[in-house]
Design brief:
heterodimer, A: about 160 residues, Alpha-Beta Plaits, 2 domains, five-stranded antiparallel beta sheet, four-stranded antiparallel beta sheet, B: about 625 residues, binds flavin-adenine dinucleotide, binds thiamine diphosphate, binds magnesium ion
Chain lengths: ~160, ~625
């Protein structure tokens, strides 16, 4: 099963590679990893999505906690209701005949066109993974030139805060 | 503020020592720029505490910090990037340095020192090749949870990342085989980093910590403060087990019929040997140990059913496999112990005490996890059991059918070997050595058959009396580890039991031992084979002895001679006793070589991937 983990780590050089190394060294899956600063400059926040059976997820969480630099790990997926977002920038071919279609689709999905060139539109889409996948599927027949994605960030709705 | 200064009001630390202040108001060479008129009316001491900073060079901080950590001896090898630390060590003169002949030797010696004494081992190496040479030693310590701090020199911070001369990213290289590591980039961090390194190395599940110190940092100056206590918000090992878990564990004992105590290296580390014994005797349960747990329960105790696992006793493996309750005490269900996991102890409920949560439920499902220190957990468990007041006799009665079964297994296939009047059997050498040294010795081993015969035929009655590379299985560990152990215990008998292959992996350390005048005894079981690998080839590769048959072996007696040590050799069984006796009686370093039966095997043996009940017997 897919799990989204929220990890607070000491903002030390090398902390990211310790985490990445843990996953590669122990053969755990890592689907996405997002790193950002927090309000506390001494800590960074990582959101990572991974998958595995219960025993593997348990082991992943324990191994993360074992790292000296890791301050806290929360399995957002286990904590009940949570919100999850990902953002993608999609550069789509925009020729005279497809422009209107792209704009219409953006409207329906509440995406934004954030850059325009003579032959392309760059669309920004934010939402859960399912929504982003849907937009990509729709744009594919029109022609996608490039995609950049952020990876998932997540937050529990009320209960446990990091 | 400089804690040291509080003790010396009126004086301040300078580079050259203490300077007595006569008129602090006139002084401004120490940066009292914010000094204002009204401060004149302040109490002198108070003023002092607030304002003055003692500056110290990184290399002096290093020495000072080591002294505060109680370090008495370090093992190392110099080079350009660490020369300053060496210089400072010598200037200070309180810490003994042992110059090894290869940095791997330094790491293993620090490890041996730590395992024998329970204290943190310290080693020192230069940047680049010096640092990479320590890696095998670090990984060895990591796998066996040995507290160690490794200091490496690094190129100056300005050159880091430039492929400078002898630059290597040792922090990157050792990240997966250290408990934690540091590159010190700011002199202000150095004292805190060293403090943290020692603290992390010895607490919780111990392990090696590496501190990489660039050359400019060794010479940079800053205030030196060294806290007595350190707290790291992101590192807080749980030592005190939850009483609820202990009570649940007790309930399982109340309802079991076939218990076993499975004792591992964690019991040695936490010093729980008394408690293991007390518990076993209290409830009358059989005890089996891992390789790393040898000595955590007396080898000669009637309730000790032997070592578990691949080369464990038939009795221990059968008892574990048929048990209905396993209490794992600081053991990590290693694949050499469980064999095929699906077939591991199918009827047993499992209680697992371990200070490292990742060890619990890593390989097998556990019914009652107990996170905490073994010793503390056992003390609580013993208390809960005694408080419940069941007389010892009733436990004994309850488990007596189980003991009958165990006795039957023991009788069916006791540990043994085929004696031979014409050729020396390695087991006979170990038995004889045990007979002569009983409990007096600290035994180190190399890796392979020599290691397994030692584990099987030497009886370890006390903890920290066998030092062996279990998790990594590092050939070449035994000799440098013996050096470390002998440095920790100058008056004890230290013996390295070696194979002819392994001893050649760090044989250069003979020079270190001679230089330090260490009376280490080395027993080489010479089969002119990489015996353990040969055994696998014999059993599973149709006797194709590829790359394991040494067609050339040096003359070990002459090697002893070349190092000005004593060399003895036995080639016939009737010489074994004499050589051992003479070797142990001879002062100084002695190499005793035994030409053993070349194709002798280690049995029982659980083939890799098989269930532990599928043992190949003698
Ligand atoms: C050639 C060869 C053959 C081998 N054959 C065998 C064999 O037949 N049988 C065998 O047993 N081994 C064998 N080994 C060794 C094996 O590879 C493992 O090293 C060993 O089984 C691990 O022992 P352990 O489970 O006691 O764990 P250790 O590696 O000693 O780990 C200790 C555990 O205790 C925990 N711990 C540490 N401190 C504390 C504390 N204070 N409180 C609580 N818990 C603590 C740690 O977190 C860890 O989980 C062999 C090795 C070699 C090289
Ligand atoms: C550094 C290292 N290289 C290779 C091995 C694989 N290995 C395990 S046991 C063994 C043979 C050891 O030979 P020897 O020291 O003569 O001991 P014996 O088994 O003959 O007693 C080898 C090569 C190892 N454990 N360590
Ligand atoms: Mg050999």
């Amino acid at each position: 099963m897919k799990h989204t983990l929220s990890v607070l780590v000491e903002n030390n050089p090398g902390a990211l590679s310790r985490i990445a190394g843990l996953f590669s060294g122990r053969g755990f899956n890592i689907e996405s990893l997002c790193v950002a600063a927090t309000l506390d400059p001494t800590l960074s926040h990582m959101t990572l999505t991974t998958s595995g059976d219960d025993l593997i997820i348990e082991q992943i969480i324990k191994q993360l906690n074992r790292l000296v630099d890791v301050y806290k790990v929360v399995d957002v997926t286990e904590e009940g209701a949570y919100v999850e977002r990902e953002m993608a920038l999609i550069k789509a071919k925009a020729e005279a005949e497809t422009r209107a279609e792209i704009l219409r689709m953006c409207d329906i999905f509440r995406c934004k066109v954030v850059d325009v060139s003579p032959k392309t539109y760059t669309v920004e889409v934010t939402g859960p993974k399912t929504k982003i996948d849907a937009v990509i599927e729709l744009l594919k027949p029109i022609g996608i030139k490039e995609i950049a994605k952020t990876g998932v960030i997540a937050m529990s709705r009320e209960k446990k805060s990091l | 503020m400089g804690a040291a200064l509080h003790k010396y009001p009126g004086r301040r630390l300078t580079d050259s020592g203490f300077l007595t202040l006569t008129d602090p108001w006139k002084e401004n060479d120490f940066g009292l720029t914010s000094f204002r008129q009204k401060d004149r009316f302040r109490d002198f001491h108070q003023y002092f505490e607030v304002t003055i900073m003692a500056k110290m060079a990184g290399k002096q901080m290093f020495v000072e910090a080591l002294k505060r950590e109680g370090v008495e001896v370090i093992f190392g090898y110099p080079g350009g990037a660490i020369i300053d630390l060496y210089d400072a060590l010598d200037q200070d003169g309180t810490i003994k340095h042992v110059l090894v002949r290869h940095e791997q030797g330094a790491a293993h010696a620090a490890d041996g020192y730590a395992r024998a004494s329970g204290r943190v081992g310290v080693c020192l190496a230069t940047s680049g090749p010096g640092a990479t040479n320590t890696v095998t030693g670090i990984a060895t310590a990591y796998m066996d949870s040995v507290p160690m701090v490794v200091f490496t020199g690094q190129v100056p911070t300005a050159l880091i990342g430039n492929d400078a001369f002898q630059e290597v990213d040792i922090v990157g290289i050792t990240r997966p085989c250290t408990k934690h590591n540091y590159l010190v980039k700011d002199i202000k961090d150095l004292p805190r980093v060293i403090k943290a390194a020692f603290y992390i190395a010895r607490t919780g599940r111990p392990g090696p910590v590496l501190v990489d110190i660039p050359k400019d940092i060794q010479n940079a100056k800053a205030e030196f403060t060294y806290d007595e206590e350190i707290k790291l918000r992101s590192y807080e090992p749980v030592l005190d087990p939850h009483i609820k878990q202990i009570e649940k564990a007790y309930q399982l004992f109340e309802h079991c019929k076939r218990p076993i105590l499975y004792v591992g290296g964690g019991a040695v580390i936490s010093g729980a040997h008394e408690e293991v014994r007390e518990l076993a005797e209290l409830i009358h349960a059989p005890v089996a140990t891992t390789l790393m747990g040898l000595g955590a329960f007396p080898g000669t105790h009637p309730m000790n059913i032997g070592m578990l696992g691949m080369h464990g006793t038939y009795c221990a493996n059968m008892t574990m496999a048929n048990s209905d309750l396993i209490l794992a005490i600081g053991a990590r269900f290693d694949d050499r112990v469980t064999g095929k996991v699906d077939a591991f102890a199918p009827h047993a409920k499992i209680i697992h005490i371990d200070v490292d949560p990742t060890s619990i439920q890593k390989n097998v499902k556990v019914d009652i996890p107990i996170v905490g220190d073994c010793r503390k957990a056992l003390q609580k468990l013993i208390k809960v059991i005694t408080d419940n007041g069941r007389p010892a006799e009733t436990w004994k009665e309850r488990f007596s059918p189980w003991w009958e079964q165990i006795a039957a297994w023991e009788k069916r296939h006791p540990l043994g070997y085929k004696k031979d009047p014409n050729v020396i059997k390695p087991q006979y050498v170990i038995e004889t050595l045990y007979g002569m040294t009983k409990g007096r010795a600290i035994i180190t081993t190399e890796v392979g058959q020599n290691q397994m015969w030692t584990a099987q035929f030497y009886k370890f009655d006390s903890p920290r009396s066998i030092l062996t590379s279990g998790g990594l299985g590092t050939m070449g560990y035994g000799l440098p580890a013996a050096i470390g152990a002998q440095m920790a215990f100058p008056d004890r008998l230290v013996i390295d039991i070696a194979g002819d292959g392994s001893i050649q992996m760090n044989i250069q350390e003979l020079a270190t031992a001679m230089e330090q005048r260490l009376p280490i005894k080395i027993v080489i079981l010479n089969n002119q084979f990489l015996g353990m690998v040969r055994q696998w080839q014999e059993l599973f590769y149709d006797r194709r002895y590829v790359a394991t048959d040494f067609t050339f072996t040096p003359d070990f007696v002459k090697i002893a001679d070349a190092y000005s040590a004593t060399g003895l050799r036995a080639t016939r069984p009737d010489e074994v006793e004499d050589v051992l006796k003479k070797g142990l009686d001879t002062p100084g370093l002695v190499i005793m070589e035994f030409a053993i039966a070349r194709e002798e095997g280690v049995f029982p043996m659980v083939p890799a991937g098989k269930a532990t009940t599928e043992m190949l017997l003698v």
